[in-house]
Specification:
Length: about 100
Amino acid sequence: MSSSAGGKKKTAWPEVKGMPAAEAAKIIKRDMPEANIVFCTADEDGTMELVFDRVDVVLDTVAVTPTLELAPAGSIKSSWPEVVGMSIEDAKELDDPQEQQ
């Protein structure tokens, strides 16, 4: 889709909802090459600064297995592959049975 429809500049990309962030950014850049794409999470406070070329891409899915960088092997749980694909909110609410022991 072109950056202008009927002479109007495109200002929203509903077709990228649910896509990986990098893929969404490519589509937005194709439609609006001058776009300043900013990746943020849904719970981040946005800026009130008005920037006409900024497009906020809100990330709400866990895409990579979260890992604890400094955990000695086997000492404590250091990886959570079960949250990959979950929304950030669902992943935050997930109870770890090992923590309940």
